[in-house]
From TrEMBL:
EC number: 3.4.13.9
Sites where the protein binds Mn(2+) 1: 254, 336, 380, 417
InterPro entries reported in the protein's UniProt record: Creatin/AminoP/Spt16_N (IPR029149), Creatinase/aminopeptidase-like (IPR036005), PepQ_N (IPR048819), Pept_M24 (IPR000994), Peptidase_M24B_aminopep-P_CS (IPR001131), X-Pro_dipept-like (IPR052433), X_Pro_dipept (IPR022846)
Protein name: Xaa-Pro dipeptidase
Function text: Splits dipeptides with a prolyl residue in the C-terminal position.
Gene name as annotated: pepQ
Amino acid sequence: MSTTLFNLQLEHIAHLQRAYEQVLTKSGFDSLAIYSGHADYHFADDHAASFQTYGHFVHWVGLADIQHSWLVIAPNTRPQLYLYAPDDFWHLPTKLPEEPWVSALDVHLCSTKTAPTLTGKAVVIGDIESVSTDISQALKADVAPNALVQALDELRMFKTPYEVACLREANRLAIAGHQAAQTAFIGASGELDIQLAYLAASRQRESNVPYQNIIGLNNHAGVLHYQHYDLTPPKQRFSLLVDAGRRFRGYCADITRTYAGPDAPAVFGELVNALHRLKDEMVESIVPNVDYVGLHKQMHHSLGNILVAHDLFKGSAQQAVEEGVTRAFCPHGLGHSLGLQVHDVAGLRHPDGTPAPAPTEHPALRLTRTLKPGMVVTIEPGLYFIPMLLKPLRDKALPINWTLVDQLLPCGGIRIEDNVLVTESSFENLTP
């Protein structure tokens, strides 16, 4: 690991210390404990589900697999890390890396699950309801009010240079996986083999991915969160959609690419190229103080132009938007905030914590903020051929080229997604 990254992380921790002190002072509290969380067992079983550490805990330590641990923050005091590290021969005990950031914390190794030491008027955040009764009673602290948690969420909207470096590296590692997935598709692999190729090239196991990778061949590409992997390759290869990511020190990459197969109609390959151009157009529209809802609406107008240009809609682009045609072809939002969570916090709130819900006509939009320097967002326009969404349009007198739509149904759909940093004057695409 580079010295530069380590130095950035130390600066990041110092920044968090200052910011948390301000939040605590404003909220009238003397100390705050963050619970890491822990994995829960499957019902009637002794096998635990997959787990990721609470985002506000990872914000400090950059480790996404810490359980039963606590981090205590107080003004003018070094952060106190109570790390659960029991003696265990069934599992490898938790161990901190030998990295400089560890020296910025006071580390207390705990062989048993325990409550941290708190001072003054204290509050806790995290999945407190899941801790044992004896620990809960020993905490002697209040559950943090929503306003305090929202202030910490807002802090995560704006990435430090360390966080940007982590997101950039997560993208680099994910890109290697996407390249391997494309190669496997060219080699006529099935969904499971494409997934395994992605994992191998991006150097991760399936339990570590930030979200379940979407590997959809043919009509499966039209299932927005397709959740299975067919074991055998299809007889015909119309399309592949890969929506897959990677974590680096807790930070998530979220990248999507779509490829036309050898059996796809020629127009499908043209549409894939058009969506790449649309993605680039939307990325290049990112500047400070731009309204993300406005960008989402801009995407729909551009999508209307694509439908008209490729003979899918024989009316005007404006009509395609006004009649809800573009929403049927693209039912999701333009993108979302990205960071320690794939759909990161505070995307649907104003800076003061008040709600900023998605517009009624675009209910799936996950980000409604005015973009500011330091935010990282995804840009992911899509164009899908989903029978259940298109069916209501068939009963309307709309100039949709149903013959062409039916030819494209086996292709499922297209999504192209990049991760973008809002800079002081423009943008940086983290997905080169």
